[in-house]
Amino acid sequence: MNKITIIGTGSVGSTIAYTLAVQGMASEIVMIDINEKKALGEALDIRQGTPFCSSVSIYAGNYSDAKDSDIVIITSGIPRKAGQSRLELAQVNVNVTKQIAPEITKYCPNATFIFVSNPVDILTYTFAKVSGIPENQIVGSGTILDTARLRSKLAEDYSISQQNVHAYVFGEHGDSSFVPWSLANISNIPVDDYQASISGSKGLYPALNHAEIEEYVRKSGARVIESKGATFYAVSISVCHLVKCLLSGADTTLTVSTMMHGEYGIDDVCLSTLTVVGANKVKGKLITPLTDAEIALLHKSAESLKSVIKGLEI
User: Fold this and answer.
1) Which residue among 166, 173, 210, 241 is the active-site one?
2) Is 261 a residue of the active site?
3) E strands along 55-181, which residues?
């Protein structure tokens, strides 16, 4: 059975715990927060509904209770406010990560660590540098949420199941992210050719505007924050999907944030490209055939992150 620890019981951490419990992905869930009363309340609220779910022990605890966890999900830190960029959060949440690292790793050094807090690429990088944990046990949620937003938008525009849409967001989980459109397809048809490939579809669907779609994806988080104050449902579903893939016997490719070691000519930074995950670890990266223009955009995103890292105390 699977033991999962969640550090941080704000809206994201608590919703992840709830989703894990409802989907029956763990037999034991530990919730840790500097605000112990909040963690107790969240765990109790979820636990009281578990008689209608798969059997799970869910409780508030401390770092020692995380011992032997299979997966540790880190959502702690200061949340992004309306009008604030993810990167503006950097130093504050880097400091939080540096405080957490030695406390959690001594109890579960063999766990896979998933970073969700923003700026997720910076925090994943920080943990890789300071924790002493092998890099194949460290992964950031990266652009899995951006990718989900992209697929949901394309599915909505073309009135087709999201399962038939294969498209990705690469790079930073932030303003320098981009869509490698050369990889995007619907039911194996290049996305730009999809409408013309449906008989009798002339004028049925809107023309695909790459820039508008990418702007929609980049601004979705800010739009939700402006409307309701925080984002937590979609990111929680995305992270739980990552957990499911890590616990699966079959490997899965996902756009998650991991350390780069020369792939596409990029080194010493964490960002999202298609990555193979499974069996509680990162298996490697899938080197996709990007165009020269797309590789240039990936380099631009990497440089954007590196410029922030240079200004931080890690």
Assistant:
1) 173
2) no
3) 57-60, 71-74, 112-115, 138-140, 165-166
